[in-house]
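Input (structure):
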């Protein structure tokens, strides 16, 4: 199966998770960028604002996604939803061919409909590797 792992990250958690999944599935790893500076406290506040009011961003990919069977899309949870760059990604790529993986501190994503699967990696639960292994086994079975 032709699988691509796509991720957006602000502080590296979603990147780490995406790297582990891509390595276990031997899949291409593609970074989404939105060219905003979300760093520091000001960036955090701006990120919260963008997420809360669903403000649109433009996203670019580190390499083009031409052909694939399924996508694994890794995003941080921002104010209860996927990061704006991931929302922009799903305007161009289908949810129903995507396994969504959400990294967060303690809560889970509200809008859970339409994906091939949805996996929450909640830092407070300290189960990152176990949850990744379960997802990878499920994808390999399909
Ligand atoms: C603007 C913003 C909003 C966030 N909202 C939530 C939230 O609602 N629930 C939660 O558990 N974590 C929330 N977080 C924490 C991130 O989801 C978490 O740290 C994530 O793993 C960061 O991923 P990254 O390192 O790939 O950027 C938020 C972080 C940011 C920057």
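Output (sequence):
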């Amino acid at each position: 199966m032709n699988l691509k792992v796509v991720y957006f990250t602000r502080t590296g958690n979603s990147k780490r998770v995406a790297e582990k999944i891509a390595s276990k599935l031997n899949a291409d790893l593609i970074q989404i960028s939105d060219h905003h500076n979300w760093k520091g406290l000001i960036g955090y506040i701006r990120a919260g604002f963008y997420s809360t009011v669903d403000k649109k961003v433009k996203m670019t990919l580190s390499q083009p996604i031409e052909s694939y069977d399924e996508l694994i899309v890794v995003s941080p949870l921002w104010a209860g939803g996927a990061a704006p760059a991931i929302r922009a990604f799903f305007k161009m790529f289908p949810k129903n061919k995507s396994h969504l993986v959400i990294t967060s501190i303690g809560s889970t994503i509200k809008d859970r409909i339409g994906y091939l699967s949805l996996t929450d990696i909640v830092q407070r639960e300290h189960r990152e590797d176990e949850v990744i292994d379960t997802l990878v086994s499920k994808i390999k079975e399909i």
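Notes: The helical segments are 13-25, 40-52, 84-92, 128-141. Residues 9-15, 44, 47-48, 51, 76-80, 103-107 surround flavin mononucleotide (CB under 6 Å).
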